[in-house]
Amino acid sequence: MTRYELCLVVSAKVEDEVRLATLEQVKEYITRFGGTIVDMDDWGKKKLAYEIQKMSEGYYYFIHFDAEPTCPGELEHRVRIMENVIRYLCVKQEA
Predict the structure, then answer these.
(1) What is the mean pLDDT of the chain?
(2) CATH class of segment(s) 2-92
(3) Domain map of the chain by residue range?
(4) pLDDT (0 to 100) of residue 94
């Protein structure tokens, strides 16, 4: 298994329940595609470097997980169309 890191920026305009539900949905996708969540960092609400979709703030989450090489592609395919996720990046971590 390979270690990956997924960075999510979730819209600050949604309610807390919706934001947490979005995060839980992403975690469920990771486990559905054979990944194991190792760690999650919640950086909270931060100012964006530039305005995205007329938003200047977002909630940052970093999820570290172990998975097979096919998992990140499937995960990105699902996260890309999630309404409340304004940016994401999944990278392979070096050992």
Answers:
(1) 94
(2) alpha beta
(3) 2-92
(4) 82
